[in-house]
Amino acid sequence: MTGALPRLAVLASGRGSNLQAILDAIAKGGLDAEVVGVFSDKPGCEALLRVGETRRWSRDAGSYADRAGFDADLGDAVAATHPDWIVCAGYMRILGDGFLARFAGRTLNIHPSLLPKFRGLRTHARAIKAREREHGASVHFVVPELDAGAVVAQAVVPVHPGDSADMLAERVLQREHPLLLATLRLAVAGRLAERDGRAWLDGHPLFKPLRLSSADVFIEPPRHP
Ligand code: GRF
Description:
The chain is α/β, with parallel strands linked by helices. The chain contains five helices and twelve strands. The two termini are 31 Å apart. 5-O-phosphono-beta-D-ribofuranosylamine binds next to α1, β5 and α5.
């Protein structure tokens, strides 16, 4: 790790409530880290406004001829902040090989489903349509395939009869924030790694994702499958 505090680069495309949860936790002493930059493919997005101008970077991804060009500029901007971890928090663009190779094993994403169920978009509506009784959120390492990287941790919420996609999304979001924070605490403490396509905690492979308890801490994982 470089510098006094672990350095987080946050990628976001929209509202930025997960980013705000990170900023609030840091301000309250609940996460020993520093947000060194917020990076976006949507120059007008709300997430960018949650930090001062000097910590913002954005480019309209649509103005680039191809993904590789945008990813190269994004990667240069992220690298310039010397991050220890890259956190995709509502970042709605696929990161290509070029970007991920530069930040291998230290790029995390929060996704609103219990992966491997419901990769991609509209997860809440799809969970309702599939008559799932449980839904939730996952934090996983990012690989070039969409939402396919090793899952570190999950938070589960019930699906209630009569739920709309918006109602369920709101219930999941309430658990996303503590889930992301609990996972980042492990990451910045140096307890988390990715090796052989698997997530590792304290030098042991995780055979199942960590589960967030109702007290917002992780249930101790089994050491064996
Ligand atoms: C969250 O549900 C996140 O899991 C998903 O997009 C949403 C972003 O919310 N990838 P916010 O921008 O952090 O408020």
